[in-house]
Amino acid sequence: MLIVASNPTKFIQGYSEQFERSFLENLRRSHTTKRVSAHVVYNEYIRDKNHVHMNATRWTTLSGFVQYLGKTGKCVVDETEKGWFIQYINNDPVAMARQEELKRKRQALLDHEERNRRFIQAQVKEAQEKFGLDDDGDENKPAHQPRVEKVSMSLKLESKSKLASVESKKSIQSAFGQDVDDKSGKDGAPSSSFDHETSWKGGKRSAVDAIMEEETRKRQRRDEDDERANRLDHWIQPGLVVKVMDKDVGDGAYYKQKGLVVRVHDTYVAEVRMLESRDVLRLDQEDLETVIPLVGRPVRVVNGIGRGALATLVSIDERAFCAAIQLTSGPKKYSFVFSFLLFLSFLFCVFSCRGRTLPQVEYEDICKVDT
C-alpha cells in the first residue's frame, strides 16, 4: 500500500493500459469488426479470473471507457436506447494489406466477368449472323433450297445388273458423304454436283456447331452464376487444416503453425486445435490462411465455383498462385450432352464430366482437409 501510495499515477497508468489492451484483444478475437453491445464485451472480459478490475484504472464507468475508445479512434462507438455499442477498428498493417488484396482480387474478378460477358455476347452475335440463328438459338430456314439439277446420263452397252449395282454403290457412298471413286466416274455413272454436296454438308455441320456453341454458352453462364452465388466473404468450415498468420497470437508461439478447424462460431470465428501442441484457440478467419497439400491429396473448395465440394489437387502453378483441381464429390458436378448429326445418321454422344477439372483456382479458394 505504501508503494502504491508513493506513486499512484504510475500504477493506475499501468493497470489502465493492461485493462485496455486485454479488453480490445477480447473484442478483436470474439467479435472482430462486428458491432456489439459494450456490456456484452465487458461481461465476457470479466469471466477471466485474472482480469484487471476497472476500479484499478483511471476510468470509473464503462461508458467513460467506451467514450475514450471512440475519441482515440480505436473503436467506433454509438449510444442507443439499449446502451453503448462498440465496433473494433482493425488497424493491423497485415490485416489492412490483406483486405486491400482481397478488394483488388474482387475488382479484378468483376472486370474479368465483364470481359467474359462482352466476349460471349460478341460470340453469340457472330454465331447468329453466321448460322442464321434467332434469339432463342433455333436455326432459321435456309435462305435458299438446294437446287435440283438435271442429271444427264450417257448409257453404254452394259448389262442392267451392272448399272444397278453402280447406282446402288453411288447412293450408299453419297449418303455417308464419301466421294465416288475414279473408276465409276470414268464409266460414265451419274454424279451429283460438288457444290450441292458441299452446301449440304456445310448446312449439317453448321447445325452441329450451333448446338455445341449453345451448350458452351449455357455452361459459361452457369459457371458465372455459380461464381457470383458462391463467392462469399467467409470461408472457414469444420474439418479444414489452416495456418495461423497472426504474430500476436500467443506472442508469436503459434505463428505459421497449422491447426484443425473443429468448430465455427458466428460464421467468421473458428475454434482451431493446433496439430503440434493440441492447444485449442479461438481465432478470426482474418488471422488464418488456407493450406495447400501435396499434389494428389484431397482438398475442399471453400469459395467460388464448387464451394463446399471435395476435390483432388491435380497440379500447382506457383507463378500464378493458383492450382488445378478435379471435383470428386459434392453438389458441384456437371454433365453436358452434345448431339452430333452426321448426314442421314444420328449419333448421340454423351460426355460425362463427373470429376470435372477446374484448371485455375486461387490458393485462397481451396484448403487441405483432415484425413
TrEMBL record:
<feature type="compositionally biased region" description="Basic and acidic residues">
    <location>
        <begin position="214"/>
        <end position="230"/>
    </location>
</feature>
<feature type="transmembrane region" description="Helical">
    <location>
        <begin position="334"/>
        <end position="353"/>
    </location>
</feature>
<feature type="region of interest" description="Disordered">
    <location>
        <begin position="173"/>
        <end position="230"/>
    </location>
</feature>
<dbReference type="InterPro" id="IPR019447">
    <property type="entry name" value="DNA/RNA-bd_Kin17_WH-like_dom"/>
</dbReference>
<dbReference type="GO" id="GO:0006974">
    <property type="term" value="P:DNA damage response"/>
</dbReference>
<keyword id="KW-1133">Transmembrane helix</keyword>
<dbReference type="GO" id="GO:0006260">
    <property type="term" value="P:DNA replication"/>
</dbReference>
<dbReference type="InterPro" id="IPR014722">
    <property type="entry name" value="Rib_uL2_dom2"/>
</dbReference>
<dbReference type="GO" id="GO:0008270">
    <property type="term" value="F:zinc ion binding"/>
</dbReference>
<feature type="domain" description="DNA/RNA-binding protein Kin17 WH-like">
    <location>
        <begin position="1"/>
        <end position="125"/>
    </location>
</feature>
<dbReference type="GO" id="GO:0005634">
    <property type="term" value="C:nucleus"/>
</dbReference>
<dbReference type="Pfam" id="PF18131">
    <property type="entry name" value="KN17_SH3"/>
</dbReference>
<dbReference type="InterPro" id="IPR038254">
    <property type="entry name" value="KIN17_WH-like_sf"/>
</dbReference>
<dbReference type="InterPro" id="IPR037321">
    <property type="entry name" value="KIN17-like"/>
</dbReference>
<keyword id="KW-0812">Transmembrane</keyword>
<keyword id="KW-0863">Zinc-finger</keyword>
<keyword id="KW-0479">Metal-binding</keyword>
<dbReference type="InterPro" id="IPR041995">
    <property type="entry name" value="KOW_KIN17"/>
</dbReference>
<dbReference type="Pfam" id="PF25092">
    <property type="entry name" value="SH3_KIN17_C"/>
</dbReference>
<comment type="similarity">
    <text>Belongs to the KIN17 family.</text>
</comment>
<protein>
    <recommendedName>
        <fullName>DNA/RNA-binding protein Kin17 WH-like domain-containing protein</fullName>
    </recommendedName>
</protein>
<feature type="compositionally biased region" description="Basic and acidic residues">
    <location>
        <begin position="130"/>
        <end position="150"/>
    </location>
</feature>
<dbReference type="InterPro" id="IPR041330">
    <property type="entry name" value="KN17_SH3"/>
</dbReference>
<keyword id="KW-0472">Membrane</keyword>
<dbReference type="GO" id="GO:0003690">
    <property type="term" value="F:double-stranded DNA binding"/>
</dbReference>
<keyword id="KW-0862">Zinc</keyword>
<feature type="region of interest" description="Disordered">
    <location>
        <begin position="130"/>
        <end position="154"/>
    </location>
</feature>
<dbReference type="Pfam" id="PF10357">
    <property type="entry name" value="WH_KIN17"/>
</dbReference>
